[in-house]
């Protein structure tokens, strides 16, 4: 007995009575057994076809905990019952549920879900820590946010991303705790983390408010404003020139004739970029279409 797939059988086959029975020339969905003829292939019974994706599971998780109270035992019990029959911890489902809760600005639920996940020993990543830190700040629990940042900073000192420093500096800037703001900035400089433009602007404003002009001049000299920055225009990453704050008004002011010409050139450039992107031209054509102020990457 042997089995072949896509076998070209002869146009006829002998049967015991001496009669001939014709068979189709090609079988696509059947299996031809030796001297037995075609046998149809039936679907396997033990394979289930109903599959529940992670998106629907995350929606169920959000609906499961959304109507509960803020009691810790009640929320943790609902989450435990949700993952009771899972063979492995549904980390992707929980992360998508956290993203949905973040879009709805359910900060208390985010804090509860992340702490429950950490108690299970799962999902201790930089993304989860940053989501928890952001939720604590948005919920007004500043002391817990400071404790969390201190723990993360002491544990992951050299590998801490810049976004954590930016979050804490913006928090202290909004609250008015300038001493703590300077401490975080000093830690950034010791670790060699270069601040971005927003941090430099906030520090400059604080130095001007406190009339510390010598430190303000040192800050501006050490971290000058960038001449170029990246922006996303119609889904494309474009590098553009940045004008300083003192010359912004002068750059925006101008003759109406030159303004009309610049507007017409920008419209023409956008049309060329759209045509090049739609026609699938190569990178060199897009570079030629870009002007001096814009550089396509």
Automatic annotation (TrEMBL):
Tagged with keyword Cell division: no
One protein family per Pfam: PPR
Alphabetic keyword roster: Repeat, Transit peptide
PPR-type repeats, residues: 161-195
Keyword Transit peptide among UniProt keywords: yes
NCBIfam families hit by this protein: PPR
PANTHER family in UniProt: OS01G0757700 PROTEIN (PTHR46782:SF1)
Name by which UniProt lists this protein: Pentatricopeptide repeat-containing protein
Organism listed in the record: Urochloa decumbens
């Amino acid at each position: 007995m042997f089995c072949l797939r896509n076998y070209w059988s002869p146009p006829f086959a002998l049967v015991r009575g001496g009669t001939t029975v014709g068979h189709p020339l090609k079988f696509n969905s059947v299996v031809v057994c030796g001297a037995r003829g075609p046998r149809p292939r039936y679907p396997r019974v033990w394979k289930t076809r109903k599959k529940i994706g992670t998106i629907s599971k995350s929606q169920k998780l959000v609906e499961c905990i959304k109507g509960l109270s803020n009691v810790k035992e009640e929320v943790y019990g609902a989450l435990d019952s949700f993952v009771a029959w899972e063979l492995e911890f549904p980390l992707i489902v929980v992360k998508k549920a956290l993203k949905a809760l973040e879009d709805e600005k359910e900060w208390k639920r985010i804090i509860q879900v992340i702490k429950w996940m950490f108690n299970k020993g799962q999902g201790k990543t930089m993304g989860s820590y940053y989501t928890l830190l952001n939720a604590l700040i948005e919920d007004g629990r500043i002391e817990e946010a400071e404790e969390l940042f201190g723990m993360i900073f002491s544990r992951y000192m050299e590998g801490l991303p810049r976004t954590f420093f930016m979050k804490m500096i913006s928090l202290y800037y909004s609250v008015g705790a300038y001493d703590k703001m300077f401490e975080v900035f000093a830690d950034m400089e010791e670790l060699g983390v270069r601040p971005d433009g927003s941090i430099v602007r906030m520090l400059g404003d604080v130095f001007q408010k406190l009339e510390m002009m010598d430190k303000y001049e040192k800050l501006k000299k050490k971290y000058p404003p960038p001449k170029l920055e990246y922006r996303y225009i119609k889904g494309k990453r474009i590098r553009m020139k940045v004008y300083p704050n003192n010359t912004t008004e002068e750059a925006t002011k101008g003759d109406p004739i030159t303004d009309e010409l610049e507007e017409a050139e920008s419209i023409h450039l956008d049309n060329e970029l759209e045509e090049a992107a739609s026609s699938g031209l190569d990178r060199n054509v897009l570079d030629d279409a870009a002007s001096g102020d814009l550089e396509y990457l």
